[in-house]
Specification:
about 290 residues; alpha/beta; Arc Repressor Mutant, subunit A; D-Maltodextrin-Binding Protein, domain 2; 5-stranded mixed sheet; 4-stranded mixed sheet; about 40% helix; about 25% strand; elongated
Length: about 290
Amino acid sequence: MAEAGSTAGAARVLNLSQPSVSIAVKALEEILGQPLFQRQPAKGLVLTPFGQRKLGEARGLVARLAAFEAAPGGGEPAGHVAFGYFTTLGPQYVPGILKRMARDYPRVTVQPVEADLNEMNQHLAAGRIELALSYDVEMGARIATETVAELKPYALLPAGHRLAKAKSVSVAALASEPFILVDLPLSRDFLLSVFRAEGIEPRIAHRTRSLEMVLGLVANGHGISVLVTRPASDLAYDGKKIARVALKDTRVRQRVVLARPEVAPLTAPAQALAACIRAELAAARSS
């Protein structure tokens, strides 16, 4: 139920009736002597602090059982891990992370969950995911983080823009340009902070939730943007070119973090996933 977010969702996953799941949870709460979940308006069932601790213990037990039942050899992590990732970080890193996991830890099943920053923080707080790759933006007090990269924002310009071939550009020089904003919760505030840190408000011309649409709008001359995520290609979907130019005066940085609920230590499968994430991001920095 913690990962599914509701009794109905858990029932579908377990192929049971919803009343059966509710009865089982109630019986478990009676055995443990404390409630595991509380119902919150618009959020459904949310783990109590006690429930979060017990979820961590349960995940550990399941992981140890999976390792015990695995083929002879022992010691190799086995089991399941719910892995959350921020939507714009996913395309750059997650496919490689999953490939590395399948190669190095074939007995671990990874369940990827894509989310925006606000949703990610909610998933972590509710215990629906065990480990997340995210930006360090408004993480809750009970979320533990480990920095795995620190990124500097850059300017995204049409290839034919007058500043496209500059080695660097000031934030002030971009202020008069039509600005295309990645309009995702929390992301928008961070990107706007690049300008606001210099006492400037950008002239927003377009808003979109899609990084690909940002690239397309910029490539076709509808404006400029500021991003942190770095697509590998300098082409938009329609084949038109973009230019990435360093910002020479910004003090803003964005930390990429591994995040987890503080009350629950990582299971062996989650530790294996964390190791693969660190390795994948280190390889990306060195390439």
